[in-house]
Amino acid sequence: MEMFPNQTRLIQGNQAMTHGALYAGARFYAGYPITPSSEIAEECSVLMPKLGGMYIQMEDEIAGIAAVIGASLAGAKAFTATSGPGFSLMQENLGFAVMGEIPCVVINVQRSGPSTGLATKPAQADVMQARWGRHGDQTLIVLCPASVVECFELTVQAFNFAEKYRIPVILAADEVVAHMREGFSIPEEGELAVIDRKKPSCSPRDYKPFKADADGIAPLASYGSEYVFHVSSSMHGPDGFSNNDPANAARKIEQLHSKIEVHRDEIVITRSFQIEDAEVLLVAFGITTRASRAAARTAREAGIKAGVLQLLTLWPFPDKEIRFAAERAQTIIVPEMNYAGQVAGEVQRVVGPDRDIRRVNRYNGQIITPDDILKVMAL
Amino acid sequence: MTPPVIREKSRYEIILAGAGGQGLILSAIILGEAAIREGKKVVQTQSYGIATRGGLSEAEVIIDSEEIVFQQVRNPDIILAMTEGTFEKFCDLARTGTLIFYDETFLEERKGNNLCGLPFTRSARNLGQGGSANLIALGAIVARTGVVRMESLVHVVTETFPVGTIEVNIKALRLGESLIAEHKD
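The joint structure predicted for all components is written out below.
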């Protein structure tokens, strides 16, 4: 559907992510529809042609991400959307996008697994897959929304990070937030920053597609332009051609990581709710943030000083922010919709083995409620 | 006309439950959108299985004048049960004050406070639009509870449905309204 600024409408999370992508300038979508992300493909199939963009339904998710990578190299802001089974299929090509430093956005609307699992039910069990799903020394950025507004804003942010750092960005939504509807009005053009990739200013002859500037990122020319260049999944030098020199390999791996590490303060987004005096710290992400905030509010009414640290960026992991918030807290609780405690384990790593972390886990396709959380607060 | 049992308040929690294919999520969206047009905060969620038709389907709407933090219904004010299964699931809540509407087409009349049985599906069939039971029920709920204004609902239906089907859908809403006017508790 079309949206107009200053007009509040009941908008679905999937719609908001689609419109966030369009707002950020995305004009290419390729993918294979899958519950609970299908509305993104549906919306793109209608809106992309109207905006002069392109929508292609591919034969599967492997082809979907491959087309996105090709479109991005040709200069378009490109994205795809999927869920667990499709996200698994995309991993190899995502590794290619990391190695080739190709900006792209992949929305993974998490559903209950493994495999087909409970196809219409939510989960937050792809936290580690999003970070480590590819082989080799690699890193990327993962963002995670908890509301329809955040679906929109974090999608814009995902494109900005992808373009600025020449990296794939995963938007790890979940079934509830993607299917949920809330009042939303689209921002005016210019209200949110939109960043475009750096283009080369040198002559085509001097262009080296992987020769990083001082900020750690190389300008990216477009395929089909006068800049003719080579992108390879093999280890390559600044010119893009295969290079087996150990010193070059070490430099490349370091650069893939350092371009994110150096800018981590800009990339790591957290939001805090009454953590200043919190004795009970809830570390939450995605839809579970809302149950956590409701639980914290009930706890405050009962005289327990509880606060919530929401992780909008999951990777790079918000070590510093969690360490700071945990300093004053006596109790740390991590609620998440997975069995193993994928984020709780990371929080434990950050705060050290001596701190007691209370876990709240659900893995039956049902959401975590405020009562589930209050129970571990002994309320 | 039966006086509304729920006086105007700042927050409503509503569950529309039934079988997949009955159009309950659409009803929830229309109700939610109507509340948005009245300047309220709304969260609408749903839960359903992998079958397109049949199987449990539940839609929730929370309407509030303040920010809605937790997105799910915890203390429902209003429930619509379009199948026997969903009625059995929720009927105990009537005793603690939840107003439960149920489809008399599929369920025998039940006695008790806060129960409102109306022939939603039968009326829809009589209208010649078996699929409009969801809107008849929505019209009845709004007429009885005033959770949104009927005009807001009509406005949203006019905007939402394709030209050529608007009239029959508004007729369905009005039919729901008239079921309440005729209904004796």
